[in-house]
Task: structure prediction
Amino acid sequence: MPDKKNIRALSDEDLMAWLAKEKEPAFRSKQIKEWIWKKAARNFREMKNLPSGLIEKLENEFELGPVRVNETQISSDGTIKAAMLLSDGLVVESVLIPKGKRMTACVSSQVGCSLSCKFCATARIKRKRNLLASEIFDQVVLMDRLAREHYGQALTHIVYMGMGEPLLNFKEVVKSVRIITSPEGLGMSPSRITISTAGIAKMIRALADENLRVNLALSLHAPDDAKRSQIMPINEVNPLEDLKDALRYFYNTTGIRPTLEYVALRGFNDTPEDARKLLTVTKSIVSKINIIQYNPIDGGEFLPSYGNQLKRFTDLLKKGGAITTIRRSRGKDIDAACGQLANKNKLSEQKQ
Ligand code: SAH
Result:
């Protein structure tokens, strides 16, 4: 069978041109787009308001490349992890985090990751490819379904904090946000979406220029270049001064205050000296800071901070005027928490 094109990778113009070539009326484009996005059709035969001749042509030429939920695991705290099977057999993971009325989907942007952050389990899976916008979109649709099935509630928030580095898959990530937020897609508010990055200064600026109105989180994790480069090699080409400049640009362009994420690593970045240094960073940019409890990974060199050390650290930050929140880990028992996504389910082990 000749390779079929993914219809959801076509631009609007491409779809119009194809319809014209097939002598189909232009208004079919709107109907098709509604099926492939808003109604998340799994096959062309579902497209009931299209004539059968057109459905046949679509079937012959295109595929929909749908993502499927292959396996779900539910944590004792209600967090659900789903292994998502892509149409080429690769697997990524998505996580649903229920918290009161808030239903957050954490989605992946790449299969594996090319960055080698020392504390993260995903770093051990070689980056295989970028996800398409449609594959990110499908994760959201499927997590929304899981949220309704399990909790009777629709998704309220989306975070790009699953596998991969969103800003290294810039084009498709931006496209996915546009579809998720557009009335022809899911019509979600961009203020409920957060893109998290390990810190690529140039792409933070590019994101600001896209004017998507989404939130931005920077995985800071260390208060100075020396320490940050030890745990995040990406820092060597994106040092703190450049990142701070890029965050200032983001804030000045969008008016949206970026979040700094800081995983507290025992004895490495949680001392009073670290807090003092971190305050010089937070004071130099408009931002808020989320302290994340570390989830140890198999064979990893880091441990979570001791409770009293963490308290002293956060108290110093608060006293110094930083807007500080402590984020508790969710879904640890099923390896669904931050930095634990490593395709440890049965199916993925066979496939990858
Ligand atoms: N590549 C992006 C998206 C991943 S987001 C980024 O780096 O921001 C996942 C968040 O969890 C990041 O802040 C990441 O640094 C953090 N993280 C990674 N491993 C972790 C771990 N083991 N425990 C807690 N947080 C972790």
